[in-house]
From TrEMBL:
Protein's name in the database: SRCR domain-containing protein
Gene3D superfamilies: E3 ubiquitin-protein ligase SopA (2.160.20.80)
């Protein structure tokens, strides 16, 4: 795989085409059989044409980028043009802009939670995501962590890495999610993903408990399971063109799994994020931020915000 490429035009050898993600069948699941015109097959992310890109589509922010969720000041300081996702790459090599309001040192992603305070050696501060060295990058690895718990993503020192922090898996690398073979394979019950928040405590019937991701059988796979799109792949979100092909009611995000079966009051069905009706939105639900309907993400009140909740970083700003 070449630098700055996710799949290098060769679908069969690409990350997303690997059996790990969709059973090596590059013409099924995720992009509806037409890899070249699929989202993930586009160069960089949106093929340089932001207006025709997925994230610029009305599906995500109603066609009005300036008033969209991702262009809101909460995430990128109101400057849509300098926003991360608007950039041709990920963050355009400018560590002091986008995503974190220009003040990188005081930003969330600069916090030790993500990269231990060293911006230059952090993942997101690297050019292109992995510093131009595809072979040693996370996305270039055949799996996710290549079975080597002390390399990639966390710079060799797993114990002091982000994912090994108590925030995600209680500081114990061996019992952590990403350090486990395949993703969990160990003390799953004490892991974050095992919490009822994701699959209601019933791991065996959950999505992430399936071998690999879908075990080569679409009907019994994660993406084909009722967990994600009610067992009917053709009417599922990922099978639909763009996000849900205009048929919102039969889409995944409109299913009771995410927002209690009420499409009109759901997050993605709302214009923007929750259409001003925060109380009935997903992000306002107690599951995500304890019923505190603060606008945007945390509205200046960090302690009561979503990201400040103990679930993510133990309430320690």
């Amino acid at each position: 795989m070449e630098t700055n490429s996710l799949h290098n035009g060769d679908c069969k050898s690409s990350v997303l085409c690997k059996s790990e993600l969709h059973n090596g069948d590059c013409k099924s699941e995720l992009h509806n059989g037409d890899w070249k015109s699929s989202v993930l097959c586009k160069s960089e992310l949106h093929n340089g044409d932001w207006k025709s890109s997925v994230l610029c589509k009305s599906e995500l922010h109603n066609g009005d980028w300036k008033s969209s969720v991702l262009c809101k000041s909460e995430l990128l300081n109101g400057d849509c043009k300098s926003y991360v996702l608007y950039k041709s790459e990920l963050h355009n090599g400018d560590c002091k802009s986008e995503l974190h309001n220009g003040d990188w040192k005081s930003s969330v992603l600069y916090k030790r939670e993500l990269h231990n305070g060293d911006c230059k050696s952090s993942v997101l501060c690297k050019s292109e995501l992995h510093n131009g060295d595809c072979k040693s990058s996370v996305l270039c690895k055949s799996e996710l962590h290549n079975g080597d718990c002390k390399s990639e993503l966390h710079n060799g020192d797993w114990k002091s890495s982000v994912l090994c922090k108590s925030e995600l898996h209680n500081g114990d690398c061996k019992s952590s999610v990403l350090c486990k073979s395949e993703l969990h394979n160990g003390d799953w019950k004490s892991s974050v993903l095992y919490k009822r928040e994701l699959h209601n405590g019933d791991w065996k019937s959950s999505v992430l408990c399936k071998s690999e991701l879908h075990n080569g059988d679409c009907k019994s796979s994660v993406l084909c399971k009722s967990e994600l799109h009610n067992g009917d792949w053709k009417s599922s979100v990922l099978y639909k063109r763009e996000l849900h092909n205009g048929d919102w009611k039969s889409s995944v995000l409109c299913k009771s799994e995410l927002h209690n079966g009420d499409c009109k009051s759901s997050v993605l069905c709302k214009s923007e994020l929750h259409n001003g009706d925060c109380k009935s939105s997903v992000l306002c639900k107690s599951e995500l931020h304890n019923g505190d309907c603060k606008s945007e993400l945390h509205n200046g009140d960090w302690k009561s915000s979503v990201l400040c909740k103990s679930e993510l970083h133990n309430g320690d700003k």
